[in-house]
Each structure stands twice: as structure tokens, then as C-alpha cells.
UniProtKB/TrEMBL annotation:
<dbReference type="GO" id="GO:0003858">
    <property type="term" value="F:3-hydroxybutyrate dehydrogenase activity"/>
</dbReference>
<dbReference type="Pfam" id="PF03446">
    <property type="entry name" value="NAD_binding_2"/>
</dbReference>
<dbReference type="InterPro" id="IPR013328">
    <property type="entry name" value="6PGD_dom2"/>
</dbReference>
<feature type="domain" description="3-hydroxyisobutyrate dehydrogenase-like NAD-binding">
    <location>
        <begin position="164"/>
        <end position="284"/>
    </location>
</feature>
<keyword id="KW-0521">NADP</keyword>
<dbReference type="InterPro" id="IPR006115">
    <property type="entry name" value="6PGDH_NADP-bd"/>
</dbReference>
<keyword id="KW-0560">Oxidoreductase</keyword>
<dbReference type="InterPro" id="IPR008927">
    <property type="entry name" value="6-PGluconate_DH-like_C_sf"/>
</dbReference>
<feature type="domain" description="6-phosphogluconate dehydrogenase NADP-binding">
    <location>
        <begin position="2"/>
        <end position="161"/>
    </location>
</feature>
<dbReference type="GO" id="GO:0051287">
    <property type="term" value="F:NAD binding"/>
</dbReference>
<dbReference type="GO" id="GO:0050661">
    <property type="term" value="F:NADP binding"/>
</dbReference>
<dbReference type="GO" id="GO:0030267">
    <property type="term" value="F:glyoxylate reductase (NADPH) activity"/>
</dbReference>
<dbReference type="InterPro" id="IPR051265">
    <property type="entry name" value="HIBADH-related_NP60_sf"/>
</dbReference>
<dbReference type="InterPro" id="IPR015815">
    <property type="entry name" value="HIBADH-related"/>
</dbReference>
<keyword id="KW-0520">NAD</keyword>
<keyword id="KW-0346">Stress response</keyword>
<protein>
    <recommendedName>
        <fullName>6-phosphogluconate dehydrogenase NADP-binding domain-containing protein</fullName>
    </recommendedName>
</protein>
Length: 293
């Protein structure tokens, strides 16, 4: 199967490499074109523009940072829309809001193409290992066509029905994840500032009912102050912001998510946006005081 792949950031690079490893023919494009070279070394071809990739490939996948990037790659000059049409499918796996997805879907359908949104749950390592959870919605025929690729990229795909449902599900999941990261950070800070060992707290958590892979993975590196980005904090804050907007639209009160969003915003304002989202601990640690007053 031949696919195009637009966006070779942390996730896109791992996903495109995975497709290549599994025998897919992949044509890649990235805004910073030099980033394509690593994929070329693995056997990828390069398209000079998103339009060139879509012209060449029947199916094109995108993995871009946020709504404005997703819209720009479709609607701007040399974008997807210039070449999409009958018999071609576009699959956006970026985390965006439902309105962005709907706008892209409508434009592509107007040109006769098919569209699926398919954001993913799972970070850099699951992307490398083909263990993502795919939250798809939109054109069911295109979804079915993409199953061989989804089977390589993920451990499970959900088809959630009409366009927007994939985006919404992803935002709900990441809203919970961001709040949990804040709760863990506050807990580590409270343990530390009240004379307990944060490492012992992690050990206790890991044996109880609230044990989870995220605390287990991120906890130890947080204690070392090591925030090599798997999931950049700026993207987590974008997801909190979009989830809160979804809450606004539906009159759902989310005080925990709102407070967590403030912490992520604070972290961004301190220049931590490109670090892993667990770097929010630096903000909450700072807010903890010495505990010795
Ligand atoms: N990292 C993670 O753990 C996960 C991330 N996600 C989501 O996946 C998406 C990608 O994340 P990730 O790979 O981590 O992000 P990165 O920041 O590593 O990569 C972002 C990509 O988007 C491109 N991009 C940004 N702005 C534009 C633009 N205006 N026009 C064209 N391309 C643009 C970048 O190009 P350039 O190289 O030129 O900057 C790069 O290819 C995000 O929506 C994120 O929320 C979902 C699950 C997990
Ligand atoms: O969106 C991030 C993730 O880990 O999932």
C-alpha cells in the first residue's frame, strides 16, 4: 500500500518509520524539509509540498501540531486541497478540535475526496512500537481502506461515527491525562515538602488502585528533573484549552481541568513549552513552598 505522510515531528517521524518498516511505500513531507532525510534513509520518497504528496498518493496521512497547522496544510497554497479529489483519501491524525476537523472534512468532501479524523492516544514510545490507540471518525469506507495502516500504527482502532467524535474523544482523554499529571505533581510536591520521600510515594502508588503506566513512566524522570519531550507541554496545554472550550460549548463545569490548564499555561510562560508535559511539576514544585515555615 502506498501512503503519503505530512508532518514528521516526534509522532509523525515514528509513525512514518513504522509504516516503512512494515513494507508500506511512503512519500513524506515536512514544513522543515530537511527533517525528511531521516525517513529517506529508511526508504521514503519526498514530496516537495502537501499538494505534491496528495497528487502522488491515493491515501495521505497528516500528523501536525495543532488546529492552525492542520488548517494551513490543507487550505494554504500548495496544500492538500489543490490535489484532493475523487478516489483520494485524507486522514488527519493530529489532535485538533471538532470544528477544525469539520472544516477540513467539508472542504475535502466538496472536492470529491474522502476524509477521516484519527487522533491517537499514546506517545512517542507507543508510536515507535505501533501501540497507539486510534480514535477515528468520518468516512467509513476510507476508514476500512486504512485498516492495514491503522493495524501497523496502533494496537486498537475505534470507529466513533460522525466527524468530530474522534477529536472530542481525544480531547476528553487528554483532559483527564493533563489533570492526572497535575495531581501527581502536587502529590510529589506535598510528599517532598512534608518530609516524605517522593520515590517512596511512587512505590506506594504503583502498588495500589491508582497505579497507572503514566505515573510509573513519568514519576522517576520527574524526580530527576529530566523532561526530554515525548509529549511536548505546549501540546498538552493546547489540548486542555480545546477540552475546556468543548466544556464551554456543552455547559460542563470542569474546575479540575481549568486549574490544570492554568498550571500548564504558567509552565509555558516560564519557557517550558518544548519540554515534556511532565515539566508542569517544576511549576507545582515552586508553588509548594519550603514546607518548613
Ligand atoms: N507527542 C505525543 O506524545 C503525542 C502527540 N499527539 C498529537 O500529535 C500531533 C503531533 O505531535 P508531535 O509530533 O508531538 O509534535 P511536534 O511538535 O514534534 O511536531 C509537530 C509537527 O507539525 C509541523 N507543523 C507545525 N506547524 C506547522 C505549520 N504551520 N505548517 C505545517 N506544519 C507544521 C511541524 O513541522 P516542523 O518540523 O517544520 O516544525 C512538525 O512536523 C499534535 O497534535 C499532538 O497533540 C498525540 C498523541 C501523542
Ligand atoms: O496526546 C498525548 C498522549 O500521550 O496520548
Amino acid at each position: 500500500m502506498e501512503v503519503g505522510f505530512l508532518g514528521l515531528g516526534i509522532m509523525g517521524k515514528a509513525m512514518a518509520a513504522n509504516l516503512l518498516r512494515h513494507g508500506f511505500r511512503v512519500t513524506v513531507w515536512n514544513r522543515t524539509l530537511s527533517k525528511c532525510q531521516e525517513l529517506v534513509a529508511l526508504g521514503a520518497a519526498v514530496g516537495e509540498t502537501p499538494a505534491a504528496v496528495v497528487a502522488k498518493c491515493r491515501y495521505t496521512i497528516a500528523m501536525l501540531s495543532d488546529p492552525s497547522a492542520a488548517l494551513s496544510v490543507v487550505f494554504d497554497k500548495d496544500g492538500v486541497l489543490e490535489q484532493i479529489g475523487e478516489g483520494k483519501g485524507y486522514v488527519d491524525m493530529s489532535t485538533v478540535d471538532a470544528a477544525t476537523s469539520c472544516k477540513i472534512s467539508e472542504a475535502i468532501k466538496q472536492k470529491g475526496g474522502a476524509f477521516v479524523e484519527a487522533p491517537v492516544s499514546g506517545s512517542k514510545k507507543p508510536a515507535e512500537d505501533g501501540q497507539l490507540v486510534i480514535l477515528a471518525a468520518g468516512d467509513k469506507v476510507l476508514y476500512d481502506d486504512m485498516v492495514p495502516a491503522f493495524d501497523v500504527l496502533g494496537k486498537k482502532s475505534f470507529f466513533l461515527g460522525e466527524i468530530g467524535n474522534g477529536a472530542k474523544m481525544k480531547l476528553v482523554v487528554n483532559m483527564i491525562m493533563g489533570s492526572m499529571m497535575n495531581a501527581l505533581s502536587e502529590g510529589l510536591s506535598l510528599a517532598d515538602n512534608s518530609g516524605l520521600s517522593p520515590q517512596t510515594l511512587l512505590d506506594v502508588l504503583d502498588l495500589g488502585a491508582i497505579a497507572n503506566p503514566m505515573f510509573k513512566l513519568k514519576g522517576p524522570s520527574m524526580l530527576q528533573g529530566s523532561y526530554n519531550p515525548a509529549f511536548p507541554l505546549k501540546h498538552q496545554q493546547k489540548d486542555m484549552r480545546l477540552a475546556l472550550a468543548l466544556g464551554d460549548e456543552n455547559a460542563v463545569s470542569m474546575p479540575v481541568a481549568a486549574a490544570s490548564n492554568e498550571a500548564f499555561k504558567k509552565a509555558r510562560s516560564l519557557g517550558l513549552g518544548d519540554l515534556d508535559f511532565s515539566a508542569v511539576y517544576e511549576v507545582l514544585k515552586g508553588a509548594g513552598g519550603s514546607g518548613k515555615a
